[in-house]
Amino acid sequence: MKRWNGWGEETCDFPLRDDALAFLASRIGPGKAVQDASFEAACASLAPSRLPEHPLIDATPATRLRNALGQSLPDWLKLRFGRIGTAPDGVAFPESAQQVRELIGFAQKNGVSLIPQGGGTSVAGHLTAPGGDKPVLAVNMTRMGRLHYLDKQSQLATFGAGVLGPDLEAQLRAHGYMLGHFPQSFEYSTLGGWVVTRSSGQQSLRYGRIEQMFAGGVVETPQGRLDIPTFPASAAGTDLREIVLGSEGRMGILTEATVRVSPLPEYEAFHAVFFPDWESAEAAVRALAQSRGGLSMLRLSNPLETVTMLALAGHKRLIGLLEGWLKLRGCGEGKCMLMLGASGPRKQARAALRSAIATCRGFKGVHVGRRMGEKWKEGRFRNVYLRNAAWQHGYVIDTVETAVDWPRVALMMRAVEAAATGVLGGMGEKVHTYTHLSHLYAQGASVYTTFVYRLGGDYETDMARWKALKHAVSMAIVDNGGTISHQHGVGSDHAPYLAAEKGAAGMAAMQALFSHFDPQGIMNPGKLLPAGQAA
Amino acid sequence: MKRWNGWGEETCDFPLRDDALAFLASRIGPGKAVQDASFEAACASLAPSRLPEHPLIDATPATRLRNALGQSLPDWLKLRFGRIGTAPDGVAFPESAQQVRELIGFAQKNGVSLIPQGGGTSVAGHLTAPGGDKPVLAVNMTRMGRLHYLDKQSQLATFGAGVLGPDLEAQLRAHGYMLGHFPQSFEYSTLGGWVVTRSSGQQSLRYGRIEQMFAGGVVETPQGRLDIPTFPASAAGTDLREIVLGSEGRMGILTEATVRVSPLPEYEAFHAVFFPDWESAEAAVRALAQSRGGLSMLRLSNPLETVTMLALAGHKRLIGLLEGWLKLRGCGEGKCMLMLGASGPRKQARAALRSAIATCRGFKGVHVGRRMGEKWKEGRFRNVYLRNAAWQHGYVIDTVETAVDWPRVALMMRAVEAAATGVLGGMGEKVHTYTHLSHLYAQGASVYTTFVYRLGGDYETDMARWKALKHAVSMAIVDNGGTISHQHGVGSDHAPYLAAEKGAAGMAAMQALFSHFDPQGIMNPGKLLPAGQAA
């Protein structure tokens, strides 16, 4: 069963080994475990449901709790300390567009707010029930996950929008196809969630961001149904898909989505290359992204992330040998690890890899072969579990991400890390912070920074720490010209910083659009646009 | 000087040779030339300007006439027969965003409608002045065409939005860069026009549609300035660029645009391949598009377009030899011509071509080498001039284009051609109609059909012919699930058919968005959304 207060399956544990713990302790001091609240106590803390009865709604505390929050650090603090705060008054699991319309009608009639959700993997506070007098209904879409139609000629697949990543790929695989969208949340996130938060997956370099995959769909809105047909491309006015993308539940509920799929790749491989320093590494990935050489993935770790990944990798002796060998080849202190991947027709993918590795050599890159790349692939959905393990030892792991044009990439990385170090330092705490570029573009890169620091041990302290950290790093992003999110969306955590990039005119346009579809303001109020601006 | 009533430079003539004329006459009968109205007579026919005087406004009839219309067939009929109808009451040529704001303020204060324009190449009636009591001001943006900033590291270039295609490429070339956007209108169309009509160029397979190139910009709207910063990608809510793209002047005036540029290609080549029949050819281009093999262009002519292009190519003896040779290799009657191109790093581009030609062979394709491809490239901006020459002999040339998913591509081609043949046949006229797929996608293709038929010789007859033809082919597009435009936009000619794809909900959303920026409805009223829906 899915953990109610952490990541993933209850039966899956990936403990931190002693040397990894020693590494963390040496960086930020020893952690002190805290006692988590029990599921029963958390259930008992929920206020009684204010929803009128409805055959589609489950208002039991257990169901409400399991659909109350996402995976952001404040969500975790609420769950772990049993301080849930607001929670939806009930949860519906619609099985058809008809039922979704019925729920919207119910909400309109009864003054209820709706929070659409999928797998509950948001790390930006998309799912928090607003306070206030209105009852809140969570609409969990995961029962609408069937493959409705596969058009092999056009490589289009139509799914219920609540389909989870693995179910989506399994249904396609049976026909010899794949979508190729692999965010780290892949195992628990849904197609609909990806679309409305503009998600991006690890192999976006070949398969595209969800924006490029989303070909059309159906949205049920308080003002009626919006039906978006599929075209290969169009010059006919506003692209309605773009109104749905990134709408974060504010205009309605996406019930069906058609996506551009690909035949299963003949060949797929991931390789690792090390660089002696950040400057060479950044120049190399820029050259690779700008050459459009047909890779499917590029992921560059900065020196401290490289050290951390090697320290956590296990196989201490092997890693020691590797580091010795790398040192002889010029990659010692300050080295940076690049993972690169290719996927597709064998000849094409292998040529892309060959050419990329040759390019890397021109920037002092040292190719260490396929084995580390495959290790990375194996662990790519497992790393999230480290968060559970770290918590058990009194550490929290949090991340932020942005994207900027090339001239600001390194500045941004340093600014975000420095902001975190500064703000936690001011509280007498150390932070272990490191960064990778998760998605590479000709124009720039996403900058994805991780923070590991110690739990204070009580809800108020830890929430205050997180708030201070979040504000400091978000201001660093804004001040350095980054977008407040490259792949996680806005939700409530990023909403205060959105106006910095959209401007007053952009914010007002978004508000006008969502108010058009949702004049009563019942759809996920307070998310994306600051609460004060809700209709 | 630019022709006032036709395409291109007055000094450039590309006459139809006798054998080409004989070919046309054999297909649709002999044409009868008509006497064009004189520039002076057309000027004299304009109603007096109703605009108050303003230092930025030129209200002379000559300037008003030269900025009154575009290049659609009804625009031509109005110009050639001297039946201009409505025209703007004046034209402004702003040189700064400040002046654009001043003009918007002037329009708001004086109840004036504004029609933003660039090079006047619209073929969908974007520029027609609406009738009614309100004075109309055309805002010609071509004096705002400077390269403001080139960020080589991020491959971003910021231009005044009125920059014409050749000026844009020349300014970039001086720095070793290019944009790579080559619609057939390239020589007279502007960056701003491309953005607000969602234009697509011949090498979009590598360089992207304008949607992929447009990274940010500035729009002056009646509600103030919308400033869209550049990010490599973002998950932060609605992508404001998408509100500007395809807005066709309805929300404001784009004054500045930042585009994603590329280094000048090391290598560029175009090749021709012939196929024995449409079925093999379509299967081949689908395979090529779906393999993402790195080509920059694919352009497939159907049998009659192939015949026509060979007939108009000149070099009758050489073409005869080619056709004999092709026939021996299985490409006789019914053969289809494919142009394919690659552009970029030498090794990459050559590999893409080699692999593509090998793929073609698997579909019975016969490679005839580079020469015909280069000939095509040479003539690619010259073919438009044929319209002038045809008119001189009493023939009109018109085109429509759409895009559909693969299962409907061939159906669409036949339906559009049959609709044209049917409607003109009903009027006792023949039409020479042929089609190419101008842009190829994994999902489907654009379907671009040309019609050549005889001028009736008087304005009423010819306008009635065009209206009947336009309606018939537009209904064929709509009925077969195509978008009403893949690359030309909506304007006034396509506006009646837009609701078929957007639905009532989509139309209302667009209206809400534009009304938000332009509550008085002064921006290009009646375009894109049917006039009845104007705010």
UniProtKB/TrEMBL annotation, chains A, B:
Cofactor(s) the record lists: FAD
Q: Any one Gene Ontology biological process term?
A: lipid biosynthetic process
Family matches, as InterPro entries: Alkyl-DHAP_Synthase, FAD-bd_oxidored_4_C, FAD-bd_PCMH, FAD-bd_PCMH-like_sf, FAD-bd_PCMH_sub1, FAD-bd_PCMH_sub2, FAD-linked_Oxase-like_C, Oxid_FAD_bind_N
Which PROSITE patterns does the entry link to?
FAD_PCMH
Q: Where is the FAD-binding PCMH-type domain?
A: 84-264
Signal sequence, start to end: none
MF terms from GO for this chain are: alkylglycerone-phosphate synthase activity; FAD binding
Which keywords annotate this record? FAD, Flavoprotein
Active-site residues, record numbering mapped to chain: 448
Q: Which residues bind FAD?
A: 116-122, 197-200
Task: Report residues binding substrate.
Answer: 387
**Domain of life, per lineage:** Bacteria
**In chain numbering, where does the site feature Important for enzyme activity fall?**
299
Q: Which ranges does the record mark as transmembrane?
A: none
Task: Spell out the Pfam families in the cross-references.
Answer: FAD-oxidase_C (PF02913), FAD_binding_4 (PF01565)
Its family remark reads: Belongs to the FAD-binding oxidoreductase/transferase type 4 family.
Q: Report what the protein is called.
A: FAD-binding protein
Q: Which organism is this entry from? A: Massilia eburnea
